Fold this protein.
Amino acid sequence: MATFKLLLLPGDGIGPEVTREVEKIVSWFGKRGIASFETERDLVGGAAYDAGKVAITDDAMKRAQAADAVLFGAVGGPKWADVPYEHRPEAGLLRLRKELGLFANLRPAICYPALAEASSLKREVVEGLDIVIVRELTGGVYFGEPKEIVTLENGQKRGVDTQLYTSGEIERIARVAFELARQRRNKVSSAEKNNVMKTGVLWKQVVTKVHRDEYPDVELEHVLADNCAMQLVRLPKQYDVIVCDNLFGDILSDVAAMLTGSLGMLPSASLGAEDRESGKRKALYEPVHGSAPDIAGKGLANPIAMIGSFAMALRYSFGLGEAADMLERAISDVLASGARTKDIAGPGTNAVGTGEMGDAIVKELERM
Ligand code: NAD
């Protein structure tokens, strides 16, 4: 049985609570003999600041570099509102992304039939939705230089952000999208704005070339990013994998997320470059939600986003696609049986707590 190194970084607020539920699942897979995990844990965010006045230690970074996958809870909260900027809780996550070279952010939007009513769209539009947004995470307008506000001679101010991409950056994110599509329904939609942006023209050219040279078996379509936003709320099931730059990905992934209901349901993965020798990628998995200080410590948090993030780790870091399918089916079946945490419980429905939801998912796995 293969052994995988997993680093747990629970973080702050509800991070440790939802991580506890993942640990139940991790140990279940070990006991069942499906895979064994060498699990380590460390501090990040406010918890790391309280312990050592930094958002993540060099030691924790070394562990992250050595791990097959990092499972990250959430960081932040009002307690750390006044810590020095460079040590704020989010700095821990940013350091992880930067030093692990996590350039590809994968955000699935899955609408479980049992929760179709929770969406703001009609049931038939979202029921059974299963799409992934692949967002370029380390380039584009959030990082391009110059990035400044300058005062002009006439006294006005001018704000500048710079959108720039190299062909290499576009090639590697396109490859992630095409590889992913091959494991799914084999379709990639590339979203940019080549009608008004030079980076959009280059994006389209490079994605087209990668497709022609390396992935001709995958269906490719190009879509303008604004049209893609419209289509996502009109007919989201037409998509499989959507690939886009950092800015459009930020927006489109939030639109897609809200098709499915609660923040407590949304997993994500951030992947680095493939190591030529081992074929492995650095990877960090985390729920999309934050530390939810308003419900922290009350046993109310929905652990499904975190458990779904672990399912992504099974699929993308450990090559355990069947185990990932099992876990995702267990989540779906538990929801179909009527179990709901408070965030997804309709009026008049009895809600279960964080631990009960985790236990119900383990019990469902037992039945398989
Ligand atoms: P949030 O995601 O923490 O919470 C938003 C709302 O959703 C809250 O009402 C919360 O109770 C609810 N919610 C979130 N996750 C839930 C879950 N699993 N189950 C049930 N309800 C859930 O966002 P926020 O309130 O804007 O931010 C709170 C703190 O988290 C801030 O310090 C922010 O900086 C930080 N944050 C961290 C990350 C991260 O670690 N990646 C992401 C976003 C926000």
Summary: The pocket of nicotinamide-adenine-dinucleotide is lined by residues 14, 74-77, 93, 263-264, 286, 289-295, 301-302, 305, 343 (CB under 6 Å).
